[in-house]
Amino acid sequence: MRRGFLQSRDGLYSPYPTRNKKPDRDDRRLFSDSNAPPPTHAPPYTVKELRDWGKKNVRLSDDPVMSAKVNLCELGLNQRLVFRNIKVGAVEVSTLLDCAVLNMLPTRFSPPPTPLENAIEFRQTPNKGIGAFATQDIRGGVLLHVEIPATVMQNTMILDFGMTRAEVYRELLRRVPEKTLHALLLLKNSQPPEMYELEEGILRSNTLGIRMPAPSVPAPVAMGHNALFLEASRFNHSCSPNVVHRFDPQSFTLTVHAIRPIARGEEIVHSYIDLTSTVTRDARRALLPVRASDERRQRIRDTKREVVVAPLEAWYRGNGRGDLQKVIAFHLAAVEDMRIEGLYHHPYILHISMLALCFAASEDIRGFRSWMGKARDVALSSLASDAALDMLKYIVYPETFPSWGLARKMRNRPWAV
Ligand SMILES: C[S@@+](CC[C@H](N)C(=O)[O-])C[C@H]1O[C@@H](n2cnc3c(N)ncnc32)[C@H](O)[C@@H]1O
């Protein structure tokens, strides 16, 4: 006889062994261990076997390499998914999570951080549907959006517990509070209606991958999670994003930080893929003119400190006889590469410091203030507050900057030709 959800051989079975969390009365459990056909032989499975089995039972990544790594015995067959509404402050979040994951969530969520007030607005874009836009100039590093998800679900599930995938999605959304649900159903559905029902279409088009605490499994992708948001799901994608999002399980909120200064009116765009790990051509093929992008990235990768400082050093060694405009053009081109690719790591600050130096040397107040301002934004976002204070002093009193007027001074040296 098949055992019920809450019964084990020795009596009551609790899916919450480590804490005394009792399941809510309206929890619905999708335990797959009691009725899933066990694989006939031990893993590793061949890709084909996995695919065939997966077509019927599992929603795995379509990537065969990823799928091949999944050990279904450890993962899928022990899966204990529970529909459960979690209260985060006054907000109710509809979730479909594994019991083990539920156990790892804090019993009390910490208060979320406070974002910059009224930093973004949503409006129609010419070609991407609705998008988010900055309503004011935003400094790099600023927290501009905080949001509790409407739903969270594990993104791999075994579907042999008597519900179809469409029914699982429908159930997840049915559990969302009514007012939120109305708004969720207005989100963009980019999926072909003949393939997916509305709920699945909405979830597939709008969920963001988030990191939740999860037990270690052979293929972490199988313990990945997706979340649907009323607002953050309206952010459009760019491979050169100006914000990054991160999910904090302690407060159960998504936080969105600017990764560079954003001008008022600029669209807020994030990357649907993790650009730091997914820099392969394939991952970006559909999204960017790949060759130009590859070349830009190669140039950025090749940039060593010596390369960045070389043109200005050469100008200095040549007693200022070379063309400072060429040095400026070199740095502007590099900064433009980094802007397009959204890669603002180490050489970026070096380039903008060089630009500030060049403009100081040629006594160009506007250029100097603009680039010193950018350097200050970076210093502030990396909490280098002492450096930022000095920079502010130079922005206000440019002539106190050490290399101010260097070009003129070099020209006026008695040995200058
Ligand atoms: C998560 S939604 C983003 C919000 C959406 N624009 C809306 O109107 O609600 C994802 C959908 O937005 C559109 N989208 C997002 N980024 C895009 C981009 N860079 N270019 C074109 N369309 C984009 C696609 O239709 C995609 O399926």
UniProtKB/TrEMBL annotation:
<feature type="domain" description="SET">
    <location>
        <begin position="118"/>
        <end position="273"/>
    </location>
</feature>
<dbReference type="Pfam" id="PF00856">
    <property type="entry name" value="SET"/>
</dbReference>
<dbReference type="InterPro" id="IPR053185">
    <property type="entry name" value="SET_domain_protein"/>
</dbReference>
<feature type="region of interest" description="Disordered">
    <location>
        <begin position="1"/>
        <end position="46"/>
    </location>
</feature>
<feature type="compositionally biased region" description="Basic and acidic residues">
    <location>
        <begin position="21"/>
        <end position="31"/>
    </location>
</feature>
<dbReference type="InterPro" id="IPR001214">
    <property type="entry name" value="SET_dom"/>
</dbReference>
<dbReference type="InterPro" id="IPR046341">
    <property type="entry name" value="SET_dom_sf"/>
</dbReference>
<protein>
    <submittedName>
        <fullName>SET domain-containing protein</fullName>
    </submittedName>
</protein>
